[in-house]
Amino acid sequence: MSTSIRRAATFVVCGLVFLTPALWGQQAKEALTFGIYTGASAPSESLSSIYDALDTSSLAQSYRSASDLGVHIGGRLRFGLTEKISFSGSAAYCRFAGQDQTAVLSNGQELSLQTATTLLPISAGVTMFAFKGLIAPYLTAEGTYTYRTVTVATGNSLLQDLIVNSARLELEPSSSRIGAAVAAGVQLDIGGLQPFAELRYHWVNLVGTDSGEDPISFLNISVGLLF
Fold first, then answer.
1. Which residues face 188 on adjacent strands?
2. Where does the pLDDT of residue 160 fall: very low under 50, low under 70, confident under 90, or very high at 90 and above?
3. Where does residue 191 fall: left (phi above 0), alpha (psi -120 to 50 degrees), or beta otherwise?
4. What values do phi and psi take at 160, rounded to 5?
5. What is the DSSP secondary structure assignment for residue 156, as one 8-state letter?
6. What does the alpha-carbon distance between residue 197 and residue 226 come to, in Å, rounded to a whole number?
């Protein structure tokens, strides 16, 4: 083998040695990441009011309208199963206030109360990426286990009720149900930090419902950060 061929072969081998880690990095599974998110929540029966606000108001005003219906905050973890599919899990605190309910006392007197509904969904499933880069659109499908309570709302606003109402008066027995959630979002990759925006729809009680129990579902509009 001539000297020039040896040099060429050595150059190719060395190039492959140095390039292989970079090529592998592009195809590597997603590392374990954690994150937090928050935003507005809206019961499914109130979504029409948000659509109406979009027709007549700005996007910011529509988001404020959704925030008046409910809010949420949560945590999330994710790790790669393949290059474009990751396991995802999350837990959130969702609270909806401003719902009127009539209670009948033992003497027959009716009492009108403003109630607050709290939902604590715990979910696990998969997140699928269309592609990865500076911008990465994704879809998520998860099974959920949700704990639900209905209490008296005492604050003048949803945030005040959340902070002030520590001694809660429950109006309905608490319940736990199995359901599902789907989400669509987009995340950025900025120096290892991954801010994201997401729409997530929850079906709370798909399994284990009581006879005559109404279906419960809601929409989360979230912004968050993975790191």
1. 135
2. low
3. left
4. -65, -40
5. S
6. 11
Return the bridge partners of 79, or none: 87
Work out the number of other CB atoms within 10 angstroms of the CB of residue 174.
11
What digits encode the pLDDT tens for the residues 7-65?
A: 444 444 344 334 334 433 455 899 999 999 999 999 988 776 655 655 666 656 655 65
Buried b / exposed e along 81-112 (16+ C-beta atoms within 10 A) = eeebebbbebebebbbbbbeeeeeeeeeeeee
Joined together, the tokens standing for residue 150 give 């209905």
Nearest to 123 by CA among 99, 102, 152, 94: 94
Whole-prediction pTM value? Answer: 0.77
CA distance 52 to 28: 44
**Distance between CA atoms of 17 and 27, rounded to whole angstroms?**
16
Residue 68 confidence (pLDDT): 72
Residues 6+ apart with CB under 8 A from 153: 97, 98, 99, 113, 114, 115, 116, 161, 165
Contact 108, 159 (CB under 8 A): no
Q: Name the one residue in this structure whose structure tokens are 């499914």.
A: 44
Instruction: Please report, for residues 56, 74, 165, the alpha-carbon distance to residue 64 in angstroms, rounded to integers and kept in the order given.
Output: 14, 19, 23
SS3 state at 26: helix
Which is nearest to 65 in space by CA: 41, 82, 90, 100? 41
